[in-house]
UniProtKB/TrEMBL annotation:
EC number: 7.6.2.11
Species classification: Bacteria, Bacillati, Bacillota, Bacilli, Bacillales
Family, as annotated: Belongs to the ABC transporter superfamily. Spermidine/putrescine importer (TC 3.A.1.11.1) family.
Cellular component terms per the entry's GO annotation: ATP-binding cassette (ABC) transporter complex, substrate-binding subunit-containing
Stored InterPro entries: AAA+_ATPase, ABC_transporter-like_ATP-bd, ABC_transporter-like_CS, ABC_transpr_MalK/UgpC-like, Mo/tungstate-bd_C_term_dom, NA-bd_OB-fold, P-loop_NTPase, PotA-like
Protein name: Spermidine/putrescine import ATP-binding protein PotA
Domain ABC transporter, first and last residues per copy: 4-234
SMART domains the record matches: AAA
This protein's encoding gene: malK
Catalytic activities: ATP + H2O + polyamine-[polyamine-binding protein]Side 1 = ADP + phosphate + polyamineSide 2 + [polyamine-binding protein]Side 1
Molecular-function annotations in GO: ABC-type polyamine transporter activity; ATP binding; ATP hydrolysis activity
Record's function text: Part of the ABC transporter complex PotABCD involved in spermidine/putrescine import. Responsible for energy coupling to the transport system.
PROSITE patterns: ABC_TRANSPORTER_1, ABC_TRANSPORTER_2
Keywords of this entry: ATP-binding, Cell membrane, Membrane, Nucleotide-binding, Translocase, Transport
Cross-referenced SUPFAM superfamilies: MOP-like, P-loop containing nucleoside triphosphate hydrolases
């Protein structure tokens, strides 16, 4: 069921179009993430939805309600910010009760609802503490409880985990996701951290320069990026220049990369220069003795051991260096710097863009 509809929305600051003609439809109960680099417009879009900013163009609907003219405090939204924004002079309990008092909820009901929210964020035992006596993670749980206690129709979260250390970030994102599922609350989440976005979201919108680049489920965005920007921003990839002599739609055609001809199917007829994008874990390292015209010769120039995987830098005769991840390492299986290897560029998994990187051709 459709819940949030953002239709042709643009927001200007002076001459800067912070968000540019945004169209998104979000379903009831969905965990939807706005992902993109600093300055791409994520916060501006979130604050426009919250009613803190008024867009110059476009319409916003919450369900059937046209929301453009509805002031922020009447939009029934719970918000969680990066810097927690909790009141330092109030206890945990009072912080969480604040929104209910402001809405003139009866005292008895406030106690019940605050206790319920405290339980949900696992903070019941700390309800009488002052915020200064809490860790960063606990403070963020207070702001989460404060956001959900009002039973909002929509939860907006702006980089809520950015101030926490790496391990706690992972724990908190799991907790947020499971609470969100339990409450079945439509959530719009802002982050610049692509791994976090992949881990928690039902769907992701990737933004750049105020514009949506792609909307999709995490694996769709990762495996089928629609342009060079998305392919580079989500995960990491190797870009190699190549060319196609004559690729017919739906037929196996040859793309020449680093002097090697690789067969792949094309989604449309194509001829000319291309950008061949292959992720480090999709490249396969073969034994130096293997022979095949589609394998490239190279030498390992760097090996970085990361625990669960090793990242190799392999240089080709042309001087191009490719990055390759290899998993399932056993003792004695580590490849050494200086080793000669052969590399399979795995055309079945590569995404091939036109020269500009704006369109996928395979
Ligand atoms: P970050 O991850 O760094 O918070 P963001 O993706 O949330 O970035 P926004 O804060 O939405 O980006 O900013 C989008 C663009 O709008 C940027 O170019 C920014 O400089 C500009 N901008 C944002 N807020 C204002 C403002 N109040 N006045 C003028 N320009 C602004």
């Amino acid at each position: 069921m459709e819940h949030i509809k953002i239709h042709n929305v643009s927001k200007l600051f002076g001459d800067t179009k912070a968000i540019d003609d945004i169209n998104i439809t979000i379903n009831q109960g969905e965990f939807f993430t706005l992902l993109g680099p600093s300055g791409c417009g994520k916060t501006t879009l979130l604050r426009t939805l919250a009613g803190f900013y008024q867009q110059e163009e476009g319409d916003i609907f919450f369900g059937d309600t046209f929301i453009n003219e509805v002031p922020a405090h009447k939009r029934n939204i719970g918000m969680v910010f990066q810097n927690y924004a909790i009141f330092p002079h109030m206890t945990v309990f009072e912080n969480i009760a604040y929104g209910l008092k402001a809405r003139k909820v009866k005292k008895d009901e406030i106690v019940v609802r605050v206790n319920e929210a405290l339980e949900m964020v696992e903070l019941s035992h700390l309800k009488d503490r002052q915020p200064s006596q809490l860790s960063g993670g606990q403070q963020q749980r207070v702001s989460l409880a404060r956001a959900i206690v009002i039973h909002p129709g929509l939860l907006l979260m702006d980089e809520p985990l950015s101030n926490l250390d790496a391990k706690l970030r992972v724990k908190m994102r799991e907790d947020i996701r499971s609470l969100q599922k339990r409450l079945n609350i439509t959530t719009i989440y802002v982050t610049h951290d692509q791994e976090e976005a992949l881990a928690v979201s039902d769907r992701i919108a990737v933004l750049n320069n105020g514009k949506i680049q792609q909307i999709g489920r995490p694996h769709e965005i990762y495996l089928s990026p629609v342009n060079k920007f998305v392919s580079n921003f989500i995960g990491s990839t190797n870009f190699l220049e190549g060319k196609v002599e004559a690729g017919k739609e739906g037929e196996n055609a040859m793309v020449t990369v680093e002097g090697v001809k690789l067969a792949t199917k094309f989604g449309r007829p194509f001829q000319g220069k291309v950008l061949y994008s292959i992720r480090p874990e999709q490249v396969k390292i073969r034994d130096d003795k293997e022979t095949s015209p589609t394998l490239l010769e190279g030498e390992i120039v760097d090996a970085t051991f990361l625990g669960e995987s090793v990242v190799y830098k392999i240089i080709f005769n042309s001087g191009y260096t490719i990055s390759v991840h290899e998993h399932s390492i056993r003792f004695g299986m580590l490849r050494e710097e200086g080793n000669k290897v052969k590399v399979d560029l795995n055309p079945n998994e590569a995404v091939i863009f036109d020269e500009s990187g704006e369109e996928v051709i395979n």
